Amino acid sequence: MSTASDLNLFPASLGDGRTAAATPVQVRLRETGLEIAATRGDRRAPLLWPYGELRSSVPLLAGAPDVVLSRNTGGAESLYVADPAFSRQLLGHAKFLGAGRQRLRALGPGIAVVAIVVAAIGLARVLEVRPAQTIAKFLPQETREAMGRSVVAQLTGNMRRCESPAGRVALDKLTRRLTAAASERGLDVRVVMVDWNLINAFAAPGGQIIMTRGLIQKASSPDEVAGVLAHEIGHTIELHPEAGLVRALGLSAAAQLIFAGSTGTATNIGILLTQMRYTRVAEREADGHALRILKTAGISAKGFGDFFERLDPNPPAPGAGAAKKDDAQPKKDEPKPGINIARRIFESEILRTHPLTKDRLSAVRAQTSYPATPALDDADWRALQTVCGVAVITPRPGAPASSQQSAPPPRAQTPPAPAPANQDRDIAEATRALETNPSDVAALQRRAMAYNRSGRQAEAIRDLTKAIEVRPSDPNLHSARGGVHYGARQYELAMEAYNEAIRLEPNHVFARNGRGNTQRALKQYEPAIADFDAAVAARPSYVFTYYNRALTYADMRRDDDGIRDLTSALGIDKDYAAAYIQRGILHQRKGLREQAASDYRAALAAPSAKYESGAWAHRTARDRLQALGIATP
Amino acid sequence: MAVADFSAGPFGTAEAKRITWVHPQGGFLGLSLLNGLLRILTLGVYHFWGKTEVRQRIWSAVRIDGEPLEYRGTGWELFRGFLIIFFLVLLPLGLITFLAPLLWGSRVFGQGAVNSLLWLLLFALWGLGIHRARRYRLSRTLWRGIRGGLSGSSGRFAWTYLWTTLLIPLTIGWIVPWRAVILQRALFNDTRFGDQAFTFQGRAGPLYKRYWLVWVSGIILFAAAMGGIGAILGPIMPAGGPAPGGMKPMTWDRIAGVVAILFGALLIFAMIRAWYSSRMFNYFAAETTYQGGRFHLATTVPTLVWLVATNYLIRTLSLTILSPIAEARATRYIIDRLSIEGATDWNTVNQNPDALLTSGEGLAEAFNVDGF
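YS: structure for the whole thing
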């Protein structure tokens, strides 16, 4: 009865929604909707489904081979049409059924959420709200302390706490001095010393701070320890540990929400990166507090800077400004470019939890000077150094912080006398002698050496300069002064002194050794070797020359030469424990594990008291054997 | 040009059913990528809508007598379900596990006791999630306007799930086929299309004919792998003094050796397991009837292994972005091999009477329980 062509008429199947049976029907696309009529023979009136009420089982694509339609007004009927022409025409009448439109509608909630989140973040930025920190502020003090105790327990596990009484007193003295400077109201800070090799300090919630034996050993003055402690106190003041915990919880919850469907490799890395980013900002803030606290407490910030410099494996060359010498000449075994890029990325800011030490260093060095006293007096400092109960060898400040050989620089000019010396006693005795005769060169020299061993290099230099005034042509005095400068990392001055000594006596073994060491520190390896060669020629039985030359060969990656020299040294004195260690290290570098292990065991067998490096050698031997997986007695 | 075949005779006559798969016009690759992109752009919120569209497409590819299934779930339902579960279950659980040790220390929360309780809770919730997810999906599945459904109590199923799970370690895995039959029965006997239920009559006996080999080989492989690894790594440090040779240091060869052993053992076990799984799927189908018509599934071991392996690669290598493809492939695999014999009188199947669950399968969503 309609004038529409038969192209508009499609066979279909209609389910009535009451049973699963279906009726064959015919569908026509009218202007306002679908007209569904029974096939011939049935007299019922046709159904009309308005286009606006239609719902499709699948978002329609043009030319879909079939389609299942129902009405979204609640009827249970279901219409099935299997004709691509039908779908095409249907889309013409009911565009909203199309896939594109459906997806746009589906995007609505997602975009709304994103808009809300962006607005919230923007608002937080504008209002300078820091949610994690705010939440952290609301935590009561007992909760914070309880969290802190758990964190401390988790971080330190079964490690021993260092509680020697004198050391504890010294530590508390230092802590009190710093907390008093940090805030007038005083801060509740508890410092825990842990017998742990790691060089670090951690701030945990509730004012708990962990410091390690490794840190105390790495520090060469109480000022350095004070700097680190002040830094950690800075974290505590800013509630960084508590905020960090809150943030970790929040991020993990948010990531769950966002990545609801897929599981986590991406999630975890993302969280890690953001966490590290937060700690970067936190470290800078803590540094700011540290400098302020140190200044208020009247402690020099130089120690703070010195400590960082020692941590940075590639310190800027002294006086060389920004450019590093390493960048200039390519190393012989330079790794492939890909690895270099990876290493550079790794070293770059984004992936390190602490800002690059170069940045922090410049921030600290930029401090103007102010009147300052040492963080601890000598007695307290020594007590702190022994808080873990073991005698601690303070490395000379000139020790290169390379991971391969953390050796104390060879004490070339000191005769191998056992020296559990009481420096104070020597100083007092020499001072008494000088009272009677102020020009007693020997006494001046003795006192200078005692000052040097106590770390009081300025006074040592003063004494030696006085001695040189009295006896300017004594190469020993110049050599001794070179040694003190070398120990204080004042290499140019050391070179001057040694040059003078060698000018006075070209075959001065100590001066040759000393200048060789200085040149090695300045990375002038060939001249260093030349000096050592001269020293060997002058006195072939002086064991330290071989040791020093071996270290230089090791720096030049001439491992075989280094091993040969160390073997010579051990041939002269089989009890030279440090030589075993260095040889073991070189063996290990060449992949000769068994030989390295036997060297380390030999070091342990050698007496530790014979040389000043003995205790270090024993400790290193144990550590390295343990790293190799070998049990030690 | 009609695709489907309508009955030539008067309607309502019982006729042979066919279960077929007609691959959708757009495939799944484009949809997967689009969903992935939109998901990222909306901080994950679009995931629920994307998943809904994927299901719509998969469902519409499954044909019974030439007419497609229809999926009427919505993204909103899934999203709401997830939010409910997240804020009522996941977040409290997370807070408890994270904060409790910090706040109260090991006095109150003996880690062992709390951990065990949490694991029990997790297993129970998992079972609950399976049941609810299935119910949601069935109730949103229609054919010719008739809904599916899952009757029965989710709680009872969760309990069954929980205690049978606990039996697995207690029997070193021997209980697995028996458990599978129990759970399958619980699910399928309550599964409805319209007002008519499926029936499942399977028993565990026939499964054990193959399972015993899986079980024995599992134990042997485990022992062999441990022995091999032990030989490579060297003796464990005795508690007392140092051993003369000491523990050998870890080198790359040793690590590679351990990895190779583990990988090899797992691979062999997976093959044997697949041989059993194929039998189990086919057996389960053969023991399931609807309206007197018995199902027939013809999976084979090589094709099953291929499917699982390639799906695994697809999922992991694409960081789950291409999961819809894997889902579709798995469904297609089953549908292509599934048939039903006997006749169904569609006139006797009435509309499903169960009330509609209003929010979607939040629990399963949160725990990623996803069947085919």
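YS: worth flagging: DSSP finds eleven helices and 13 strands in chain B.
IM: good catch. Also The mean pLDDT of chain B is 82.
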